[in-house]
Amino acid sequence: MRRLNGHPDDTIAALLRAVKVHSTVYCISELSAPWGFKVEDSNIAKFHVVLEGSCVLSVDSGEQAELECGDLVLLPSGTGHAVRDRIGSRVRHLDRILIEHRPDARAPLVYGGRGPLTRLICGGFILSEALQAGLLGLLPRILRLDARASGLSRWLEPVFELLRDEADSSQPGSSVILAKLADVFLAQLLRNYLVGADASGLVRSGSFKDPSIARAVELLHTRPGDAWTLAGLASEVGMSRTLFGTRFRELVGDPPIHYLARVRLSQAAGYLTTTNETLYAIAQHTGYDSEASLSKAFRRTFGRSPGEYRRDSATRPIQIAELPDMDRVALR
Question: Can you tell me the distance from the alpha carbon of 302 to that of 305, in angstroms, rounded to the nearest whole number?
């Protein structure tokens, strides 16, 4: 894949410029423990911003994200999920809570018990049509942006303060201002993952007309930590091992397990630049047995260690090394 010195190539640069997010704020919530709400699965991408306190988000597939003040979590595929003050708290459908506890749609939602307070901004977003299909397919089921992450805090924290001040003011039109500010966070999160996806060779992959191959690609993106095998993937999509392997390589350009390596490394790069999670935690998220195995594969593809990649993102535009032959990338 062609690269320009120190910068993404023309393809990714064009994609980055084209990332346009249009957010809608559904509600500002003031939630006192114990509390919990559930949002049904839909095709509308969703996000939550934690203005104060902490909470736990769980998607229907079982994945979880612990969120603190200053965090933004994005569910690009509209995956059904629950948010609560802690695991074990009872959850109710958000639509029902809004009907019963927020008679005025312009007012904050006040709900819960008498415990510690958590304040959230909840909303949805859409992308420009040119990016919608291709971009969402490159993203994991849950994306989390920690504004304190290396390289982001110096400019995202002031925007977060504006977001919190606007939520406190409750002035007419505040939902519009909040949505504009949320756009900044969402666009930055998507850009960081796009850069990692491009560097690992995923941006070249488009949509696939074969529904079985499209389903296999979706499985690899949404469950990269699973111990996938060629036979296991073929069984999941109802194809023979031989036919699946041949068809996948024809349409995608890589054997399935090599493509999985790209997905894992792409998502690892996203975690490194949007969160402060440890390398061990990132290895666990992305299907590696150890920090050492992730570091080895990461350096081979990105031309630097995970720590160097994280530090570089804090000080200058990410420099992407020439990708090696992915046949040499070890999954574990």
Answer: 8
Is 6's pLDDT higher than 60?
no
Give the Cα separation of 72 and 55 in Å (integer).
Answer: 12
Q: How confident is the model at residue 21 (pLDDT cuts 50, 70, 90)?
A: confident
Residue 207 has pLDDT above 60, yes or no: no
- Decide: 256 and 233 in contact? Cβ < 8 Å: yes
User: What is the rounded (10 degree) CA torsion for 308, 303, 134, 2?
Assistant: 140
Closest among 53, 44, 54, 50 to 22, alpha carbons compared? 44
Instruction: Detail the DSSP E strand segments found in 34-77.
Output: 36-39, 45-52, 54-59, 64-68, 71-75
Cis link prior to 34 (omega < 30° from 0)? Answer: yes
Q: Which residue is listed with tokens 């756009």?
A: 183
Which has the closest alpha carbon to 98: 155, 163, 27, 149?
A: 27
Q: Is 236 exposed, middle or buried (0-12, 13-18, 19+ CB in 10 A)?
A: middle
State how far the Cα of 39 lies from the Cα of 66, in Å rounded to an integer.
Answer: 17
DSSP H/E element including 134? helix 129-136
